[in-house]
Design a protein that fits this description.
Structural class: mainly alpha
Helix content: 40-55%
Distance between the termini: 28 Å
Radius of gyration: 16 Å
Largest sheet: 3 strands, antiparallel
Shape: elongated
Order of helices and strands: HHEHHEEH
Amino acid sequence: MPTRKDPQSVTRYADMFAAMGAEPRLRIMQLLLTAHPQGLVVGDIQEELEIPASTLSHHLDKLKNEELVRVRREGTFLWCSANLEALQEVIDFLYAECCTRNKAMDPGTLVAIGSAPKSGPERKTR
């Protein structure tokens, strides 16, 4: 992962946040994370989120361009899945300052995506 002070990496993360910053794209990411690791067929995403096909295609292209979503073809179906490695990079970027500069959090307390407990929103936070 590039260092946090590298201007190119900051631009990359800003673009990733911008891609997820639109409400429909954030909903797509949430849905794909619930379907991890297999992902979902594009038609199922469209049906679940009630997004027109052309609009969904636009949103998926934006997420794919920022490497937040992976798309694979199986026969006539396009399967989409969340790119956990890219999401982990974003989390690492956000926590880099608090864990290395001001000691606000012990770096060992960070949880990697994929190893987090499967509890819902009722999980206690500090």
